[in-house]
Amino acid sequence: MSELQLMVLVLAVIYGWECLAWLRRGGVAFRKDWRGHWRLAHPAAVLGNQTGGVVVAQPLPPLGYLVTAYQSPLSFSPDGVFSYVAQCVNPGWRPPQAARYFSFAEIKTITVVNRQVRLNNTLLLSAASVYQAEHLAGQLRQLLPLDPARRANAIRALQRDSLDTKAIQRRWEAFLVTGNRLRWLANGLLAYLFVLAPAGFWYFGFVRGWLPLLLGLLAFTITNTVLFHRAHRRLYPEADDDRLTQDCLILLAPATSARSHDALARHLLEPFHPLAVAQLFLPVAEFRTFARRVVLELRHPCLPVCPATAPARAAAAEVWSRTAWLTEVEAFVAKHGISLPELLRPPERTEPGVQSYCPRCEAQFTAATGECTDCGGLPLVRFPGA
Ligand SMILES: [Zn+2]
User: Fold this and answer.
1) Ligand 1 centre and the CA of 317: distance in Å?
2) Is the pTM of this model over 0.90?
3) CA 220 – ligand 1 centroid, Å
4) In this predicted model, what pLDDT tens digit does every residue of 306-361 receive, in sequence order?
5) Strands annotated E in the chain
6) Disulfide-capable partner of 14 in 128, 218, 255, 295 (CB 3.0 to 4.6 Å)?
7) How far away, in angstroms, is 378 Cα from ligand 1 center?
8) Distance 347 CA to ligand 1 centre (A)
């Protein structure tokens, strides 16, 4: 293998790495492919573990986008906050969670240290990103000074805000102002790195070719860095530290520079519930499938619903929060033209002999009664007429 081939291979491996993103369970990724179609992706089971998995952004031009959205990892009640939720938007088991409870009366300070949200300097939870940590801390600061009655209304309002598709649309359009330019620059940079630069080195040789090719590369990375920096400051005004890190990487690492549109887009919609992003981005049939999963999960989470060691006030917060979410999510689904009884009808029987099904994972059983062990012993539901 020649030095030139080795250089291109190393660059391709680094670029491939840049196309991978870690996605925590409790979140989903939305990928836009080269045809302009959005697809939903859950954390991969093959390249993953209990806490999350890898998702792959489309690597080849014309490039698309990759954005992530997470369900709230906090159960709020009028009395306190619990860093645990029973439901999970992904198939399979819920991820491990910190499960720490604080009553609002005992909270004196709310701080964010990297991805950690701390109350009274004690860990509440480690969020999926620094952006999510700041968002959750902002919600806590908003709820803390209120009395319990007002806090109940404020929690419901926060849940409704996270389902606001108009706000998502506005934020996405604000992103596209620069996002589209960065994406086309990334397409150009990929062509430069993997076609034009190797051809230039092959034709002119390293000695004559390195300076003009380096200047061409710098023209791409400097333009990318300036555009990224301005857009990042506009879209994420609080995230100065992360912006500085990203600026340096985009300026100095060409493979990172070729994914700068993803770096700008990825955390953009994290304050919103994945269901609302799905309504905006996905085709109707795929939105319905995801909506069914979200509603079934809220109605029938895995057992036990709460860790056995959790205090009674924490268990009450989980129930209060999930009940409020179910009300908001069902109203959201109905508002977008989906009949709830139709959405939640029993699954089609896979074989004539089956008599019951699990209301959560929808596995089917020949026994008329029993429990689904995959869902922690959830009681089975008989098919109509079985
Ligand atoms: Zn099940």
Assistant:
1) 24
2) yes
3) 51
4) 999 999 999 999 999 999 999 999 999 999 999 999 999 999 999 989 999 999 99
5) 20-24, 27-32, 38-41, 52-56, 65-70, 75-76, 80-82, 101-103, 110-113, 116-119, 122-126, 356-357, 364-365, 371-372, 378-379, 381-382
6) 255
7) 7
8) 13
